[in-house]
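Deliverable D2.4 — example input (C-alpha cells):
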C-alpha cells in the first residue's frame, strides 16, 4: 500500500458504533461502592487516624518502614520497584492503593476479602513491617498523636481485645485509602462525549481494545478488570518454572484469617462479601494465578505483573502480542489468551489508549501525613 495512503488512513479518527459508544459510557466515571463490613469507612476522624497510620514508621519493627515506604504518593502510590523492600526484600510487586476500595479481592493472590482485611497482614509480615499486634494496639490508644482521635471514634478502648483494636486500626487505614481516588481520565471525558479528550491514536487503541483485541474478556467494566485470577504466562524474574502458587495458596489463608468479611471483627458478617468468601474453594487451576489488576492509571505504575517482571507498557503489550516465552504450570493454561499479533502502529495505539486511563491524583492534603492536632 502507498505510504501516503497509509498515513492518510491513520489520520482519520476511528468510527464507533452507537452500541460501542453506549458501552464506553457505561465504563466511564465509576462509583466506589461502600463496604458494609467497615462501620467507620465514611468516618472522617477514622480517615484522619488512617492517614497518620499510613505515613507513620513507628509501627514497624525497626521504626523505619511505613505503608508509604512501598506506596509513595509521587509514584501514584507504588514504589517503582519490581519487588518491594520493607524491613527486608519481599517477593511481589507493590500494587497501587489508588482506587483500591473498588476491588473485590486484595493482594495479588486475593488472600484478603476486604480493604481493611489487608493491613494487619502487612503490619505483621516479617519482611514487610514486622510489627507486633499488641504494640500496635498500645500505640493507637496511648500515643499523643492518636489517643484523642482514637477515643473520639472508638471510645475508651484500652481494655478491648487486641484483635478488635487491630481490626479498628485496619478499618481506619481503609477509611483513608477509600479517599485515594484517581479518576476523571481522558478516557472518561471521551466516553461522556468530549471527542477531543483522546488522541486519534488512543481512539484506535480503544477501538481495538473493545473489539478485535478481545481485551474486555478480562478488563471490562468501569474498573477495567474482571476481579478474577488468571495465569498469564509471565515467568519468574530470575527465569525458570513458575514457583509462586498465587491464588491456590491464598484460599487457605483467606479461610483461616481473623480479619475477613465473615470474621468476628466484621461489621457485616452475613453480607454478600461474607457469603461469597465462605464458599470459595481451592481449585487445581488456581495454581500460579494472580488477580487481574485494574488498568486505570496503569501508565503511572510500572513495573508490571505480580513480581514486576515486565518493566514497561511496551513490554506488556509485546507479551500479549506474541505470547512468546509463555510459562505455564503443566496442568493449566488460560485458553482465552491468544496472541494479539499487533504491528508497530497497533502497539503504539494500544499504549496510547492505556495512557488515556490516567486520572487526576487525589488532593494534595491526602498525599502526606496530616497536621498533628
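Example output (designed residues):
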Amino acid at each position: 500500500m502507498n505510504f501516503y495512503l497509509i498515513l492518510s488512513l491513520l489520520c482519520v479518527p476511528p468510527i464507533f458504533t452507537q452500541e460501542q459508544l453506549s458501552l464506553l459510557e457505561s465504563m466511564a466515571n465509576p462509583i466506589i461502592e461502600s463496604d458494609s463490613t467497615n462501620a467507620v469507612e465514611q468516618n472522617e476522624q477514622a480517615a484522619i487516624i488512617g492517614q497518620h497510620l499510613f505515613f507513620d514508621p513507628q509501627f514497624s519493627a525497626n521504626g523505619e518502614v511505613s505503608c508509604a515506604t512501598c506506596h509513595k504518593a509521587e509514584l501514584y502510590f507504588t514504589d517503582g520497584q519490581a519487588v518491594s523492600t520493607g524491613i527486608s526484600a519481599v517477593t511481589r510487586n507493590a500494587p497501587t492503593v489508588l482506587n483500591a476500595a473498588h476491588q473485590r479481592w486484595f493482594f495479588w493472590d486475593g488472600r484478603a476479602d476486604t480493604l481493611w482485611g489487608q493491613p494487619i497482614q502487612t503490619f505483621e509480615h516479617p519482611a514487610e513491617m514486622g510489627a507486633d499486634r499488641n504494640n500496635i494496639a498500645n500505640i493507637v490508644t496511648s500515643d499523643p498523636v492518636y489517643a484523642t482521635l482514637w477515643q473520639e471514634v472508638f471510645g475508651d478502648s484500652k481494655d478491648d481485645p487486641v484483635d478488635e483494636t487491630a481490626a479498628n486500626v485496619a478499618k481506619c487505614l481503609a477509611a483513608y485509602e477509600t479517599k485515594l481516588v484517581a479518576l476523571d481520565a481522558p478516557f472518561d471525558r471521551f466516553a461522556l462525549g468530549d471527542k477531543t479528550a483522546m488522541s486519534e491514536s488512543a481512539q484506535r487503541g480503544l477501538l481495538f481494545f473493545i473489539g478485535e483485541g478481545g481485551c474486555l474478556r478480562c478488563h471490562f467494566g468501569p474498573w477495567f478488570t474482571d476481579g478474577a485470577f488468571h495465569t498469564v504466562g509471565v515467568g519468574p524474574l530470575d527465569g525458570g518454572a513458575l514457583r509462586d502458587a498465587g491464588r491456590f495458596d491464598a484460599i487457605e489463608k483467606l479461610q483461616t484469617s481473623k480479619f475477613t468479611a465473615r470474621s468476628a471483627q466484621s461489621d457485616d458478617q452475613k453480607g454478600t462479601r461474607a457469603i461469597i468468601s465462605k464458599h470459595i474453594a481451592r481449585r487445581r487451576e488456581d495454581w500460579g494465578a494472580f488477580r487481574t489488576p485494574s488498568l486505570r492509571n496503569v501508565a503511572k505504575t510500572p513495573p508490571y505483573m505480580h513480581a514486576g517482571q515486565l518493566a514497561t507498557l511496551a513490554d506488556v503489550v509485546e507479551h500479549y502480542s506474541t505470547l512468546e516465552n509463555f510459562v505455564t504450570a503443566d496442568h493449566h493454561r488460560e485458553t482465552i489468551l491468544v496472541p494479539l499479533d499487533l504491528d508497530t502502529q497497533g502497539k503504539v495505539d494500544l499504549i496510547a489508549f492505556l495512557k488515556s486511563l490516567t486520572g487526576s491524583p487525589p488532593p494534595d492534603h491526602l498525599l502526606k501525613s496530616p497536621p498533628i492536632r
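Strands lie at 229-230, 290-291.
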